[in-house]
Amino acid sequence: MIRNFLILIFLIFISCNDSLIRNNRQEVVRDIENYIKANDIDQAVEILKYELQNDIDDYNLNVLYSICLYKQSYYQSCLLLTEKLIEDSENFSKTPELVKKDLLFYNLNCAIKTDKYDNFEKNFKIYDSFKSEPVDEVKISIIKAVHDIRSSKYLEAVEDIVSVLKKYKINDEITSNLLYLKAIALFNAKRYDSTLETISTLTETELKNGEVYLTKELLDKLVSVAEDDFISSYRQLIINNYKNLESFTSDLSFSGKINRSINLLDPQDVSISLDTKFDDLSALTLIKILPDYNKTSVVFGSNDSIVISNTRYDKINNNLNFSIVNKNFNSEKNFLTPPDGVGIKSFSWRKNESNIDFSILFDGDYEVTFENLSDYFEKNRNASDRHQLLLSVYLPVDESPDNLLISHEDDKFTIVLDPGHGGDDPGAMSVMKKPDGSRYTEKEMNLLFCRELKEELERIGYRVFLTRDRDIYPSLPERNRIAQKRNANMFISIHMNSTSTRHKKKWQTDAYAGAELIIRKSIGEMPSFINKEEISKEEWLKERKQAMKEHYKLSEILSETIQSCLKKPFNQKRKMIKKNLAIFSGMNIPHALIEAGYIINNDNLNYFLNEDGRKDLYKGIIKGIEKYRKSSN
């Protein structure tokens, strides 16, 4: 009797305890849900981790954890967890339909963001079967559009987006998301007119900060790849779009970046240039401010080398002072007014007995470097500014958020193409004139070659960057720095050739036709921009010696393959020329400099003004790259 009574008491205790556990678990779940609704994800995760230690397989807790992972942008972890939850057919079938849709939505988005599509089609069909309300169809359309863009089905994505925008009344936030996706799809389809039209519609809607950043990045990309005629036709519309974007942000740093983009489209000549005699070595002949996206350059020019002293950088007040010694500058002005957004508030100087003292006030604490530029290969010997001092002001660079302009292609072979010359350095000039009476410049031909070659290389799977994508002059060390920054596997500089006027009578003969490779004779110095804490000089020297071997090997192969692809008489074999080019000084990856042909030879120039001739050149370069890579495996 007593024994039965004790058993009954024990069963009642167990039953009550189970009820208490269930009630407690329900309260915990409610707390977690409330934290998620309040967007206090860290607190929700802290509770979830504690509870999952006691019951790691609890389905409902794992559903909540997957939501937190998504909101924390842990897309890989969220993808794995949601796939596990969806594949648990017993529990998934018992889950409310709304929760099922959320799980599938997170799973599909994570698959897109991580480029992992193993179960995408299967889960997309399940998700598509649940659509019962307009919001579901809109969500599905967004997922499908993003997937189509990732799968290079750009115009299909545009059709889906246009259909949804016409069919449903959608709030401003979703509308802006759809317009952004449409612009991305059109951009990738190279429908640049329609891309700009869509961006213009987008910038007239109320954008949030993240959307402003993404839209600016897309607009920057459009400007960088569009032809000059496109920019000329739509310059003011593009500038208006930038100004609209600026009106949506209170971030002064980002506003500065927008102003720099506008400056590049509508450059102001912020400079003082003085004519001096060729043999006047004491004169400073040029001071010029050159804005770029993430860097502002100040160039000082002279007939002779420029030496600085007394450099003082007050980082508390963001003020840089320095002197240029033994120079005069006969200008009535003693200041320049920098354009908006370049990081410089004021720029002034004063002359003392033998020096010129400069004072520059920045609007932030920036990294600043000085570099002497005097490489004769890139500058005309007779130019009054052939000796230059470059002051570089490095402005803050934001990490790009995950978006559809960023492809996950870190494993691709990366090539940096360098269009030689640019900006105030035209390079060699043609004899032949354009219809408007001007001459063809080497800098414009080099840029044409590199832009088109970039497209050809990307089409067959390479990842390609340019050292310049418009008419600017990056310094020679800066071109080297770009290759390092992009973690490039190869660097190729492309030029057109010329020769002394002493041989002018022979310029139109076959003696001055055909491609030529320039190779460097010496190792050079360790570049100043390399972080000496990450790599010692001994390690760098070992890498540099190996890079020199690869430099000779790559140059020999390109010399052979380019010659084999060009038509007569431009396919004649030419010796490789040795010059100690500053651009290659210290470079530690395989590199080559191609003189594609002679710009002073009318037939050679006409060959490359024809698209077929340029394609022959690209075929030869690509053939050489492929041959080099096979021989190096």
What features would you describe in this structure?
The protein has 633 residues and is of the alpha+beta class. The chain contains 19 helices and 18 strands. The protein has helices spanning 2-37, 41-54, 59-71, 75-87, 89-94, 97-114, 120-129, 134-150, 154-167, 172-188, 192-202, 209-225, 228-247, 252-265, 442-459, 476-485, 537-565, 602-609, 611-632, and strands at 271-273, 284-291, 295-302, 308-314, 319-325, 335-336, 344-351, 355-362, 367-373, 387-394, 414-419, 429-433, 439-441, 463-466, 490-497, 516-519, 577-578, 591-598. Strands 14-11-15-18-16-17 form a 6-stranded mixed sheet, sandwiched between helices.
Number of helices: 19
What is the mean pLDDT? 82
Rg over CA atoms:
31 Å
**Uncertain parts:** 2-23, 375-381, 399-410
The strand line-up of the biggest sheet is 14-11-15-18-16-17
Shape: globular
Query: In percent, how much strand structure appears in the residues?
Result: 15-25%
How far apart lie the N and C ends? 86 Å
Structural class: alpha+beta
Q: Sheet with the most strands?
A: 6 strands, mixed
Percent helix: 40-55%
- What is the β-strand count? 18
